[in-house]
Amino acid sequence: MERSLGVGGAVVIAASSTAATSSIGIGLGLMAGVVGLHLPAIMLVAFLPVLAIAGAYGRLNRVEPDAGSSYRWVGRILNPWLGFLTGWVNVVGTVVFMAYTTAVTGSAVLQLLGEAAVHRIGGLALDPDSTLQSTLLGLVVLIAAALVAVRGLDLAARLQRYLLVFEYAVLLGFCGYGLIAGDQPFSMEWFNPFALPSLEALAQGMVLAVFCYWGFESVFSVGEEVRTARDASRGGFLALVIMMLLFVFAGTAFQRVLPLGELADNGAHGLTYFGAKLAQQPLAALPLIALTFSAAASLQAAVIPTARGMYAMGRDGTLGRVWTRLHPRYRTPAAGTLLITAIACVLAVLSLVIPTVGALISAAVNAIGIVVALYYALTALAAAVRFRALLRTAPAEALRVVVAPLLGALALLAVGGYLCWDFYRSADHFELAADNGWFELAVVALMLVSGLLAAAWSRWHRRAPYFTRRADEGAPAPTG
Question: Which residues cross the membrane (predicted)?
Fold first, then answer.
């Protein structure tokens, strides 16, 4: 694959994958229902372990840039079964994300049509909260985004750069105005994590916040296409810090404008409602347009690193060779990109059993947040093991690449484990519903069990050398 990205393109890929506008638009309302008026606090608390884990990603990428990123690093350093599981849950989580983001994208488009007074097409009444209508419209956007991704990272990064500029201009403008014009009394308690209502609120709020930061590491999945390993690391760190500042800024602005009840009740439509409280049409439509652009860009940004991860797994023989087929002209994993898109389309159609977009988001975000916490933690543990010798030779650097990632991993494992226990005890029967704790656990368990079964198939049927080679075999040469 061609090395076509610099640090600017790396920031764009990471920022688009994190999709700050979408996370703010649909995530802050969900988090407010859990943590109350402490959105800035929970975003700051969650940033600390994620920042520590970003240090692990950056250091591992400097010595072993690889399209498989955490899948290859965890497999070489800790255990190939854990490595495969890391890659698998990353892929599955991203596919689930793509499936529900199609509904978010379609819902945003339908809301825009509603603002333009288009409420019916023929005899069909348009409903932005209908998963059927939203998903079908979002699938068109997903397929178009995949075709652009096949064309190459340079084109995708240029397109996403323009979308990001518009999104951030709208966010900064509306949130800045909201801080000034909002009539809700400001309080420093909003930034106090010790004022969170309960341990359960802390755990679930942390998982939701980690989900919001999820995606910065996508830049390391395209590490073989970034000009230097240092550019990839800088891009990931810059994107992560920018996301944190945006989340805290937006959380504070939302709480200045919206009372808690309105903030929590407007979950999937939070950004639209926020814009309508601050401006009249047509200006009030700008946040909705930004949300639409963000959701569309995040679909493209999701398929890019996922296809690279599957490319690495196919290259190792843990998956079929079809995943390694590159486009003859653009040198991108075209077959994998289209296959991932097709799988996401199928899953999006299957998710129609959940009747509303808001419920679909709630069901997906908690499950993805838990598996993201798991594979972040495993990557951080791999870095701590890989660079443990620095504890003797370079203690200052060891704090950043050994101690901090280890503490971040332990924090995320504790939060994820506690939330799983809370889901288990919150219900006494299984029900196919977004608010059923056993259903939430079943989604997580399905991701993990399917990964173990796929690993067993790869190990004993495919006889992939990934499971038997030594840790120092097959490692790419350090660059940057």
Answer: 30-57, 78-100, 132-150, 162-181, 201-223, 235-254, 283-304, 334-354, 360-385, 397-418, 438-460
